Amino acid sequence: MIICKVGDEEKAECGMCEAFRMVSYQLRDVPFDDGSGIVKNIIAGVCKTCGNVAVIPFQSVPAIKKQLQVQRKAVESRVPAHMIDLLNLASAELGATPDFVPLLLKYYIHQLASDPEAAVRLVTLLTSELATGLANKRLSLKGREIGNDIEKLKGLSQIDNTTELLKGVVLMIHNDLLVEPDAQRIALLKSFVATVA
Q1: For residue 115, what are the CA distances in angstroms to 18, 149, 163?
Q2: Of 149, 174, 179, which is closest to residue 162 (Cα–Cα)?
Q3: Are 63 and 156 found together in one domain?
Q4: Does the residue 33 lie in any domain?
Q5: Do strands 53-55 and 73-80 pair parallel, antiparallel, or not at all (unpaired)?
Q6: Residue 51: which CATH number?
Q7: pLDDT tens digits for 67-117?
Q8: CA within 20 to 30 Å of 171's CA: 57, 64, 74, 78, which one?
Q9: Torsion from C-alpha of 136, 173, 109, 121, nearest 10 degrees
């Protein structure tokens, strides 16, 4: 592996100039393409023509991975064991394994966070018998947007407790996929399963 030092120069392809240009390796703060964050103070090849980052040397990849991990906020909760069973049954109904459960939950949370009418229904679902029980199973979700989606959903549903919110989401999944099957949603989720299986 070639290690680049600050001040080194070489020719590299610059995406901004759309041509091969001379780049100079410098310490830079480099934003992610999707605007979700910045990796601070890494060695990057800066185009000497336009001044934009043209290339990131392999040696800077661990710093980028570390920043991505920081952004993947984990949401941890404890729920009754039957809630995990409900999620596993819903996943099986879609033709997926229990490994699909976190994706299913994140999908629902994201959808509910942008649908005020559906978000309000979570409160009603929490009054059912299935919402009760000893919280003895761990539920963990990771992702760059999960924390934001949960906060948004808390505001829409007026449920301040993360565990109660997640229980409501589980019960909505149970209702939509097993109790009163929503054929359109099931078809969409089955296509998701097909792409990640």
Answers
A1: 42, 11, 20
A2: 149
A3: no
A4: yes
A5: unpaired
A6: 3.10.20
A7: 776 666 678 899 999 999 999 999 999 999 999 999 999 999 999 999 999
A8: 74
A9: -100
